[in-house]
Design a protein that fits this description.
About 10% of the residues lie in helices and about 40% in strands. With about 210 residues, the chain is mainly beta. The strands form three sheets. The chain has an eight-stranded mixed β-barrel with strand order 3-4-5-6-11-12-10-9. The relative contact order is 0.25. InterPro entries: Sortase, Sortase_dom-sf, Sortase_F.
């Protein structure tokens, strides 16, 4: 039996690990094609992990926008569900600057790992997460919520993983505090598949609320 990825919303499991692996692959394969085969790797040398003190969890509230100052990324957030085949739906590739929140994950600031997906490119243009690979431990991510609060996260680890070895438990599994995962495509470009072979994943910890908008 496959291990289940344990959701933190009321302790309910939200999907099986194979489904979540397929979800990440769906983002990489269907949403991140490029007109050129330039590779997108984490900047070398790979940054070390950085411990971050987590703040107390917030009550659930859907996210409305995301801002990442270091890479000048900002987008509204649309809720993403599952496609009929069990993979995660992604924003249209024709709107590469649109990011989305996987609505079967916790809301940002709630206990557990909130998951936000964004394109690296689409329609021959850079996407909202085109520079996600440039993030470093210590960088800030802000997410606005429907309740008016702005949740602040600090990146504590960056990872580049092959699609065939997507770390579904690390991304979707339960955590003891509020966390955030940002996911896009990266690595070498597969000319035949017209997609990137890896995923870039930013792991971040909730540190409290701030003013913003």
């Amino acid at each position: 039996m496959p291990a289940r990825a344990r959701g933190s919303r009321g302790g309910r499991a939200v999907a099986t690990a194979p489904v979540l692996v397929a979800a990440a692959l769906s983002l990489a394969l269907s949403a991140c094609s490029a007109p050129a085969d330039r590779p997108l790797h984490l900047d070398a040398p790979a940054p070390a992990s950085q411990p971050v003190q987590a703040a107390a969890a917030l009550a659930p509230s859907p996210p409305t926008w995301i801002e990442i100052p270091r890479i000048a990324a900002r987008s509204s957030l649309v809720p993403l569900g599952l496609n009929p085949d069990g993979t995660v739906a992604v924003p249209s590739v024709h709107e590469p600057m649109q990011a989305g929140w996987y609505r079967y994950s916790p809301t940002p600031g709630e206990l557990g790992p909130a998951v936000v997906l964004g394109h690296v490119n689409g329609d021959g243009q850079d996407g909202v997460f085109a520079r996600l690979h440039e993030l470093r431990p210590g960088d800030e991510v802000r997410i606005g919520r429907a309740d008016g609060q702005v949740a602040r996260f600090v990146v504590h680890r960056m990872a580049q993983e092959p699609k065939s070895g997507f770390p579904s438990d690390e991304v979707y599994g339960d955590t003891p505090d509020p966390q955030l995962r940002l996911i896009t495509c990266g690595g070498p470009f597969d000319r035949e598949a017209r997609s990137y072979r890896d995923n870039i994943i930013a792991f971040a910890t909730f540190t409290g609320t701030v003013r913003g908008g």
